[in-house]
Amino acid sequence: MTTALAEHRATEHTVRPAQATAPRTTATVVTGIGVAAPNGLGTEAWWQAVLAGESGIRPLTRFDATRYPVRLAGEIDGFVDADHLPSRLLPQTDRVTRLSLAAAKEALDDWGQDVAALPDYSAGVVTASSAGGFEFGQRELQALWSKGGQHVSAYQSFAWFYAVNTGQISIRHGLRGASGVVVTEQAGGLDALAQARRRIRKGSRLMISGGVDSALCPWGWAAHLAGGSMSTVTDPARAYLPFDAAASGHLVGEGGALFVLESGTAARARGARTYGTFAGYAATFDGPGTPRLADAARLALADAGLRPDEIDVVFADAAGTRDADRAEAAALSALFGPHGVPVTAPKTMTGRLLAGGAPLDVAAALLSLRDQVVPPTTNTLHPADDCPVDLVTAPRHGMRLRNALVLARGRGGFNSAAVLSQGPGPQ
Fold first, then answer.
1. What angle do CA 254, 258, 259 make, to 5 degrees?
2. DSSP state letters, 154-213
3. For 345-371, how does the pLDDT look when each residue is reduced to its tens digit (9 = 90+)?
4. If I label 288, which of 43, 157, 222, 264 is the partner at 20 to 30 A Cα–Cα?
5. For the ranges 202-206, 238-242, 286-290, 349-353, which has the lowest average pLDDT?
6. Are strands 123-128 and 206-213 parallel, antiparallel or unpaired?
7. φ, ψ of residue 132 in degrees (nearest 5)
């Protein structure tokens, strides 16, 4: 996968007049959520499925996978494009953009305000992407080599690109403020939210951020398989077993989550409901033979001003390979002690969603804080002896949930960690 940080700065020069620099310590809160996931389309439908332990892992139907060694994935079922997009956008967009537009609209509807009433250039979009419009690109390559260049869609020029979701969301909703895209695979969703927080601290009134990914097509499947860490087990209930002694790799899925972020001061001033505060964040990069996930978690806690004993639940990266699971368990033990904090991985019900994975965990963390319940990890019943984590395998009630830590590792050595806290945060 290509690694890049691309920010389209075309509007930067026009942003400054509408912005007033906010203090660095201004709390950034989440006031809208939109979800597209294999086990639920829409935030509340997905959340109820997660608490019920309903999996979205099933045999692939979006293409004939019978010739491939892996034939399971987390597909979003029942998404009717025409129900979510105007007809003029259908020939211009890949599936990942259509899912993103649906999630963005849900987040803005949840926010419940009129975005047109905001000052010009004060609202922007930062998303994460791992592959852009992979299926769209495959279709146009097929047209190129089977029919000739004159049959390649003009929309190929942007429909495949990593920044396409950011661009289409900003166009559709008139969000002309500073925007960008982050490409750091599974870690990207947290990195995008952190970039959005920077924009809020610099005075943006509203940011749409998070990530949605989808590459369930033969070309995308070839890229997934090339990573060498997918499970070839054919039983959906046994294929993806993070922290289990029988872990044999992961499955992939499509989807993710997008959020409305704004300053806590602005949200408080209008009496808005907040899901919680994006309180801390850090990113590190592995050195040769030196995993640094623990450093990312430690730095995120420091950024949030919290001690380890103030973290009530961890949403794990949950790679599903023995070495990576041991490394994550060691990182958690170093910070919290063996079995020192409840750990969960609801992504066992969706597969790893690339750039959409960590944002979906952020959504789960925020709803956990709201409803005071830790969602379950499915399939893994007993962690391996060399993974000393307190794995939550059934919804856990009766805890006081104030702060949640979300961890994510991207292919190539990216580590990111974010802290979500209950309430609107400090003034």
1. 160
2. TTHHHHTSTTHHHHHHHHHHT--SS-EEEE-GGGHHHHHHHHHHHHHHTT-SEEEEEEEE
3. 999 999 999 999 999 999 999 999 999
4. 222
5. 286-290
6. parallel
7. 65, -150
